Amino acid sequence: MTDTLSNTFNPAVSADAVPAASPPATAQGRVPRKPDVMVPIRSLGENHRARIASHLKALDAHDRYYRFGFAANDAQIDRYVDGLNFERDEIFGIYNRYLVLIAVAHLAYAPDTGANPSAEFGVSVLPQARGRHYGARLFERAVMHARNVGVSKMYVHVLSENTAMLRIASHAGATFVRDGAETEGHLMLPPATLGSHLIELVEEQLAQANYKIKVQARQISNTLSSLQSAWRGSDGTEKSE
Ligand SMILES: CC(C)(COP(=O)(O)OP(=O)(O)OC[C@H]1O[C@@H](n2cnc3c(N)ncnc32)[C@H](O)[C@@H]1OP(=O)(O)O)[C@@H](O)C(=O)NCCC(=O)NCCS
Questions:
Q1: Which of 14, 177, 222, 225 is 20 to 30 A distant from 23 in Cα terms?
Q2: What is the pLDDT at residue 237?
Q3: CB 18, CB 40: distance < 8 Å
Q4: Of 15, 213, 48, residue with least CA distance to 133
Q5: Long-range pairs for 219-222 at CB < 8 Å and ≥24 separation?
Q6: Domain extent at residue 167
Q7: In angstroms, what is the span from residue 119 Cα to ligand 1's centroid?
Q8: Residue 8 beta carbon below 6 angstroms from any ligand 1 atom
Q9: Between the CA of residue 142 and those of 92, 111, 123, 171, 218, what are the distances in Å?
């Protein structure tokens, strides 16, 4: 597998998707299409490093093989995560309500930033959260971000048997070159617009707010549990006044 970028290194479970408001029924009485779903995808920073490692280590050998091009062991995952550069690259994630990182995407910029800057995309979704288009949403988010920072070409290196990833890239309009067991997809990105900047800004703000709410909900739940335990006492019986 090509290894030009840091992304492909060689060294409970809903995301609380928020349905958008349902579109009104049409005058002809046709049933409108299913409402779009807003998935809270947030940009991850340094303080998420440990959770990214836990996410990747939760993948089995087969998924690690798909993700990295070889069945990375835990030590290799640790090296990959330690090497993540949050200043240079962009890491996106989806947390569920229990603050488990159920999906992670890495947009790694090519080192030679010439006239046609490019980036490589890699993604993983925990098995129990698959089939909900989180992978596709992360790809779309990465495309938008890449456009907004001036990237004109996005790559994805996929094992040729990885139908799900090929579908994600193909739906986005990628073209593919197959080389035996591996396939390289690339997508030419249109330039950024005011709209693409605004959409990304709003999506990021909503995702950050969603994350904060989940953190607060967990804190309240922990406090309530502690109070209940204290009230019941160590023997499990309720304390009398
Ligand atoms: C690839 C991966 C990220 C897809 O995540 P996901 O959230 O389940 O994907 P989506 O729900 O967005 O589905 C994408 C498309 O693939 C299809 N798909 C999903 N799983 C599939 C499977 N096992 N076989 C065939 N098609 C599948 C979906 O139906 C969808 O197609 P559609 O839009 O035409 O309906 C996930 O399977 C994964 O983490 N795999 C291990 C790591 C990996 O392969 N990473 C990619 C290489 S960088």
A1: 14
A2: 64
A3: yes
A4: 15
A5: none
A6: 35-221
A7: 20
A8: no
A9: 8, 18, 10, 14, 29
The domain tally of the chain equals 1
Cα 165 to averaged position of ligand 1 atoms, centre (Å): 5
State yes or no: pLDDT of 30 exceeds 70: no
pTM here? 0.83
Portion of the chain with pLDDT greater than 70, in percent = 80
The verdict on residue 184 lying in a domain is: yes
Query: Which residue carries 């479970």 as its tokens?
Result: 13
In a domain? residue 67: yes
Residue range 3-16, pLDDT digits in tens? 333 344 333 445 65
CA 152, chain centre distance (Å): 21
Q: Does residue 240 lie in a domain region?
A: no
CATH number, domain at 182?
3.40.630.30
Residue 228 domain flag? no
Q: Whose CA is nearest to atom 17 of ligand 1?
A: 164
